[in-house]
Amino acid sequence: MTAPDQKPLLRVVKGTPDDYELAALTAVIAGLASAAPVEGKPAARSEWANPARRVRRPLQHGHGAWRASGFPG
Question: How far apart are CA 11 and CA 3, in angstroms?
């Protein structure tokens, strides 16, 4: 029973469920409430952790090549 100042967690609006049906419904709702939230998007990885950065691009020659060699590719 709930205290007079509290609302019930579940209320049957239509139909007459038996004790087993109410117990099953309560178990499902309690399980959903205690489940961990699903994360839709993984955490962003740092660019330093990108394995492609370990592969060196071929060095270009010509005017300003030394400056362009430091730019990410």
Answer: 15
62 sits in the region (left: phi over 0; alpha: psi -120 to 50; else beta) called: left
DSSP structure string for 25-71: HHHHHHHHHHSPPPPSSPPPPPGGG-GGGGSPPPPP-STTHHHHTTS
What tokens does 50 get? 């990108």
User: Which tens digit of pLDDT belongs to each residue from 15-48?
Assistant: 999 999 999 998 988 888 887 777 777 778 888 8
> Distances in Å between the alpha carbon of 65 and those of 57, 71, 73?
13, 10, 13
| Spatial CA neighbour of 60 closest among 49, 71, 68 | 68
**Locus of tokens 């489940």:** 35
- Two tokens, residue 52: 């492609």
